[in-house]
């Protein structure tokens, strides 16, 4: 069993609201060092919002997030920046700067946040691009890359600072199965080599099977199941079964209710 | 964790021993020692990695730069007894076949 100090991320009673609407409602979990923790759920269930809170791009309405035992939610901006240097984020749309070469995109965090010599940064950049299968592409512009290559370049940039934690938002969305499987294998290899702790937001079940140590399934802003894939498969929760079986929602509203929703009448 | 760096001279080479973590914050010190000794240009240089507990890509880049400088100066450059964690990183970066790696110091 993991020691309490081995939990890299701990989320306690997290509540996030957009205006009056509650998007995350009482989320609790902790992630041991070196594990891949997958946040799973349907579109709009709050999984990307949860990720944005973990990486500090949003502040919650209430609750706490601890990173390496430190209360991330209570830190000032300076403290949060220091913690964020230990995190890499692989954004859904890659978020590469289109005006910079691929190499400059990867080198950017190193140039901004370290005092390393340029010669060291150049070698590190090439190593990271080699790792993601983009060796020799450092002088290309993002517009010259395919969707899968952009994802991998985004991953190389997320790894630039050799983070302890890496967060992926829909890493394999929009990729063909072979490229997606390659990305999954890379995530796994990075985890084993560097003892990386990974948080992955996805709804791609084929990826989850390959990479997840623990899966947390969200519905309507709440955790409905959490555990390894065996536990998920054995779950009796109707939404978990529906999700795993890929069954569509039942037809909900009757004719009169539908008319009311369109006209706003009583 | 901090990095301790010791250097000693043998008849045929300079030996640099790194002890601790080689990361974004400590690798510049290792780079400084390696490049300074290579600048003498008189002997091969070995880096003892047996007590390096963690090495990130800045440490790997430092070793690659050392190898490049040594090759340009036609001086030997080798690694000795890399710890398991260092070896994993070198293998991931496919550099285990690029460096001359000796099993013992």
Structure write-up:
The complex is a heterodimer of chains A (266) and B (105). By secondary structure, chain A is of the alpha/beta class. Chain A folds into 3 domains: 1-86 and 164-170 and 197-225, P-loop containing nucleotide triphosphate hydrolases (Rossmann fold, 3-Layer(aba) Sandwich); 89-162, no CATH class; 236-266, no CATH class. Chain A has helices spanning 47-54, 77-84, 102-113, 118-131, 147-158, 177-194, 205-211, 229-234, 238-245, 255-263, and strands at residues 7-18, 21-32, 36-41, 62-67, 70-71, 87-90, 165-169, 197-202, 214-219, 222-227. In chain A, β1 (7-18) and β2 form a beta hairpin. In chain A, α3 (102-113) crosses α4 (118-131), α3 packs parallel to α5 (147-158) and α4 (118-131) crosses α5. The radius of gyration of chain A is 20 Å and the shape is globular. The model of chain A has no long low-confidence stretch (mean pLDDT 89). Chain B has 105 residues and is α/β, with parallel strands linked by helices. Chain B is built from 3 helices and 5 strands, in the order ββαβαβαβ. In chain B, β3 (44-55), α2 (57-72) and β4 (77-80) form a beta-alpha-beta unit. In chain B, α1 packs parallel to α2 (57-72).
Give the structural class of chain A.
alpha/beta
Helix fraction bin of chain A: 25-40%
User: What integer value in Å does the Rg of chain A equal?
Assistant: 20 Å
Describe the global form of chain A: globular
Span of the ends, CA to CA of chain A: 56 Å
**Number of distinct beta strands of chain B:** 5
CATH topology of chain B: Transcription Regulator spoIIAA
Number of strands of chain A: 10
Helix content of chain B: 25-40%
Count of alpha/pi helices of chain A: 10
Number of helices of chain B: 3
Record the strand order, biggest sheet of chain B.
1-2-3-4-5
Task: Assign the CATH architecture of chain B.
Answer: 2-Layer Sandwich
SSE string of chain A? EEEHEEHEHHHEHEHEEHHH
Low-confidence residue ranges of chain A: none
* Structural domain count of chain A: 3
Strand order of the largest sheet of chain A: 6-7-8-3-9-10
